[in-house]
């Protein structure tokens, strides 16, 4: 079974009608729905997605989309444990400027689980650290 980790940007494309990669995201989400792919999403990523959706369409819209996402797709919601907390902190210490804490959390999780990271952040692979060189990244375009 293929395991992947989704970031906020990937999930945001799902709700963005104008994105160039929307169909690629929809196709992958259908594979997740069918159980062909197991998607992992850190709980803080869902909070960030709520925030972005709320900015665009308001609180009720954001809540509706998050609930529908969770109820429609068998996404594994991941909480932080000590190993993930420490690895996240180490990654953030290595690159304080280019990576958000949520990016660091997702990257840490992917490195620990050895699964690909599906993201809209094209710069991750350009950050020259030995840790990030081990990361498998699949990128998508907003528009």
Q: What are the salient characteristics of this protein?
A:
143 residues; alpha/beta; Rossmann fold; 7 helices; globular
Task: Provide a descriptive summary of the structure in words.
- This protein is α/β, with parallel strands linked by helices and 143 residues long.
- It has a single domain, classed as Rossmann fold (3-Layer(aba) Sandwich), CATH 3.40.50.1010.
- The chain is 55% helix and 14% strand.
- The protein is built from 7 helices and 5 strands.
- Strands 3-2-1-4-5 form a 5-stranded parallel beta sheet, sandwiched between helices.
- α7 (130-133) links the parallel β4 and β5.
- α3 (43-57) packs across α4 (59-72).
- It starts with a strand and ends with a strand.
- The relative contact order is 0.20.
- The model has no long low-confidence stretch (mean pLDDT 92).
């Amino acid at each position: 079974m293929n395991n992947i980790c989704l970031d906020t940007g990937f999930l945001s494309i799902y709700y963005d009608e104008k994105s160039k990669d929307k169909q690629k995201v929809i196709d992958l989400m259908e594979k997740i729905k069918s159980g062909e792919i197991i998607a992992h999403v850190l709980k803080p990523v869902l909070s960030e997605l709520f925030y972005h959706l709320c900015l665009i369409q308001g609180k009720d819209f954001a809540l509706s989309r998050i609930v529908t996402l969770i109820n429609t797709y068998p996404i594994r919601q991941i909480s932080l444990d000590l190993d993930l907390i420490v690895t996240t902190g180490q990654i953030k210490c290595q690159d304080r400027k280019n990576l958000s804490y949520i990016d660091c959390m997702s990257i840490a999780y992917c490195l620990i689980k050895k699964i690909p990271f599906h993201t809209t952040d094209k710069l991750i692979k350009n950050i020259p650290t030995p840790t990030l060189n081990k990361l498998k990244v699949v990128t998508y375009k907003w528009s």
